Target: Flavin reductase family protein
Amino acid sequence: MVAALHPDLFRTLLGRHAAGVVIVTAAVAGRGRAGFTATSFTSVSLEPPLVSFCIDHGSSSWPVVGEAEHLGIHFLARTDHHIARAFAARGADRFSNARWQAGPHGVPVLSDPDTVLVCRTEQRVTAGDHVIVLAEPLVALCRGERGTPLIYHMGRYLSADPTAQRGWSPPSTPPDGTALLEGRHVAERPFGEGAG
Model:
């Protein structure tokens, strides 16, 4: 029998996978509200519409998310990196410096992200030390045009350049401070350190 990868090695390898960034929010009467930054969001089905994300069952957000009938999934743009950091912080009141209001079904809706899905929780599936949450989008809140998406890669928040065209050929040496990711330039410097 072949041994599984060591968790530390597995975590490092997963960091090589670039992922979009969302914030999941929920509220339950008597338990309060919760929110966390996630990179595990994905679409699951078009008919019926289903999405999913994963949460560590040891997370401080799990007691609320584990009971919530409805959830908010906020798609983050490049300009939302500060919100991603705030909702990834441990031991903090993540809503204290966030602008938000109660949205449909009582879900806490953040004011900054320009796209929010309000979903009904359909199923929770335990998978190792995490829980996969399947949810059905009920309401889409869209404000203005979609900004450049926020990406998480190798422990840093990055931004894809949406102006890159198909068939574009990169120079032999990418511009300073960039790397190529799927035909788009991605800032290699973490936000807050001159990446803008």
Remarks:
- Confidence is low (pLDDT under 50) at residues 167-196.
- The chain has one domain: 7-148.
- The radius of gyration is 18 Å.
